[in-house]
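Colleagues,

For the teaching module next term, I've prepared a clean inverse folding example: a structure given as tokens, and then the sequence designed for it. I'd like students to try predicting residues themselves before seeing the answer, so please don't circulate the second half yet.
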């Protein structure tokens, strides 16, 4: 009884020591990766800002949303590498030899770091199921607003302009901007508008592009004609063409509302995804669960790799870890894409990738403990 009490005390001391070392390494690696990704994201968004005129507030929001989106992945990689580095360091300082001598093997090492791993996994689960879907919706709203406003700012003379969220193509021979660049006066305008069953052509001597109080963008044409050509007219005769001559004619070219998107499932609530039978939404749900689950799997794999390669080469364990992490993460992405394309059953879904990694952990564990050997006769 006394020996068990002493061992439990030693176990708790070593556990706190391990968690402290791993947490410090985790924070360092996390900040380093975040800074690299932040720099990359900052450059990309600054380029978009210069091209489309994104204001500072939206710029900072987009940058924040992108950083939040990448946080679960960075947490997973940071913890994985931190575990490998710490275990290597323990072997280098002979501390791990002492731990092994008192019976602290792979299983007990995993149990020791369990509180930290579970905490990180819960943080990741909250991010993937609640926070990130919300940020994706907000990001889509901002991008939609930017697309509409950028189109209003960058109509150039003597260039064809296609509005992204509509089937409208515009050409103006001359463009004059007002002082605030909100309204524009155009001369000698031509517009092509594709509908489902008809082609609409508009020509006018003048037009004013203006933004209404709801931030919807309109074109007001003056002294022109509107031609409607049925696309299903086999004869394509002149009699089938409708011609309307007008003094003024208003046309909406972009609106503030969020456009219907095939990726709307990405910001659906997790509860809604649980009730869905759509494979794209099932793939999104499995992806959200997979990220925190991968943290637990990678933590166990990190212990195995750190101890397995510790006496051989520190760099070898890190290289092996990075390769396996890359294969694991890319396999998850491929599985998600295949499931979205309905080429695989939702029962198999993304789960096969996790099962494969768990199988690899068992193989490493059994081989390391010499529970089986490969022999060639």
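(Answer key — instructors only)
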């Amino acid at each position: 009884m006394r020996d068990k009490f002493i061992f439990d005390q030693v176990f708790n001391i070593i556990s706190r020591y391990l968690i402290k070392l791993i947490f410090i390494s985790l924070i360092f690696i996390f900040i380093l990766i975040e800074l690299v990704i932040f720099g990359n994201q900052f450059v990309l968004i600054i380029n978009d800002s210069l091209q489309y005129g994104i204001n500072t507030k939206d710029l900072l929001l987009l940058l924040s949303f992108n950083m939040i989106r990448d946080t679960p992945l960075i947490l997973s990689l940071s913890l994985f590498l931190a575990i490998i580095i710490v275990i290597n360091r323990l072997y280098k300082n002979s501390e791990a030899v002492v731990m092994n001598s008192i019976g602290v093997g792979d299983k007990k090492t995993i149990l020791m770091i369990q509180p930290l791993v579970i905490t990180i996994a819960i943080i990741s689960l909250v991010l993937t199921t609640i926070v990130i879907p919300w940020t994706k919706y907000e990001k889509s709203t901002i991008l939609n607003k930017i697309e509409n406003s950028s189109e209003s700012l960058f109509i150039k003379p003597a260039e064809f302009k296609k509005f992204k969220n509509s089937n409208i193509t515009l050409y103006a021979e001359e463009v004059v901007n007002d002082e605030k660049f909100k309204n524009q006066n155009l001369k000698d305008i031509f517009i092509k508008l594709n509908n489902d069953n008809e082609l609409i052509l508009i020509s006018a001597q003048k037009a004013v592009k203006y933004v209404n109080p709801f931030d919807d963008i309109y074109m007001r044409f003056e002294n022109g004609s509107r031609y409607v050509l049925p696309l299903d007219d086999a004869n394509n005769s002149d009699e089938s063409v409708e011609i309307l001559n007008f003094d003024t004619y208003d046309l909406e070219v972009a609106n503030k509302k969020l456009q219907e998107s095939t990726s709307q499932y990405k910001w659906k609530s997790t509860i809604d995804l649980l009730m869905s039978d759509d494979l794209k939404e099932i793939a999104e749900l499995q992806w959200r669960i997979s990220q925190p689950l991968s943290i637990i799997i990678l933590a166990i794999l990190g212990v195995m790799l750190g101890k397995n390669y510790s006496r051989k080469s520190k760099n070898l364990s890190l290289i092996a870890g990075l390769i396996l992490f890359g294969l694991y993460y890319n396999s998850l992405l491929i599985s998600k894409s295949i499931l979205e394309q309905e080429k695989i059953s939702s029962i198999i879904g993304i789960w096969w990738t996790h099962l494969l990694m768990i199988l690899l952990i068992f193989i490493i564990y059994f081989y390391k403990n010499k529970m089986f050997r490969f022999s060639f006769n």
